[in-house]
Amino acid sequence: MSVKPEIYTAVLEELNNKAFTNTPLIVSIMGGVDVKTLEREVAVKGYISKRGLVRLMPNLPVTICSGASIMCCSAYLQQNKIDLMKCVMQHVGICLVISEKSFDAATAVAGCGPAFVFMAIEALSDGGVLGGVDRTTSMKLAAQTVMGAARMILEVSQHPATLKDDVCSAGGSTIYGVKELEKNGLRSALIEAVHASTKRCSGQV
């Protein structure tokens, strides 16, 4: 099910009461619609709850097979179906099975996070342009730098703080830049962005 969450009840109302009778598995990518609510709604349309269902949230980079998807499942879902869904989604990136109680926060990190990173890349590029680098070169350098830094976290298995310290030589140019980021609240801004997106995902705002 991939309709907008605000209209899914209207869409279901248009279906007859046997619409899902022969459906082997329902997978929902609707934000903010929890498993129990979805189970209740589709049961009215003939879906057998013991078949289980999946709540899935892919992110934009799945379009280039570099996505970070999350999924949670109903209690009835069999392990072979969970493994099948993971296998499918791992063709377009990583897929992590998490508890539903952390689904909204994980959606904010993985689903909304690309927009935050795009803004960071744009800002890095702007900084390069300010210093005299042409736009095309600066954008390529910024994007590659972010990609390389992300790969190091995933592949080297070191904490980001340790890797940051490795770049910051004593009295060097990097620590001066880090000082400005701290002064201007980079960490707090990102934390608050994820927190705000989490609240929106859960319907609190």
UniProtKB/TrEMBL annotation:
SUPFAM superfamilies: 6-phosphogluconate dehydrogenase C-terminal domain-like, NAD(P)-binding Rossmann-fold domains. It catalyses: L-proline + NADP(+) = (S)-1-pyrroline-5-carboxylate + NADPH + 2 H(+). InterPro entries: 6-PGluconate_DH-like_C_sf, NAD(P)-bd_dom_sf, P5CR-like_CS, P5CR_dimer, Pyrroline-COOH_reductase. Pfam families: P5CR_dimer. One of its GO terms (molecular function) is pyrroline-5-carboxylate reductase activity. One of its GO terms (biological process) is L-proline biosynthetic process. The keyword Oxidoreductase applies. Its EC number is 1.5.1.2. Residues 100-202 form the Pyrroline-5-carboxylate reductase dimerisation domain. Pathway: Amino-acid biosynthesis; L-proline biosynthesis; L-proline from L-glutamate 5-semialdehyde: step 1/1. Keywords: Amino-acid biosynthesis, NADP, Oxidoreductase, Proline biosynthesis. It is an enzyme of class 1 (oxidoreductase). PROSITE patterns: P5CR. Belongs to the pyrroline-5-carboxylate reductase family. This is Pyrroline-5-carboxylate reductase. It comes from Wuchereria bancrofti. The lineage of its organism: Eukaryota, Metazoa, Ecdysozoa, Nematoda, Chromadorea.
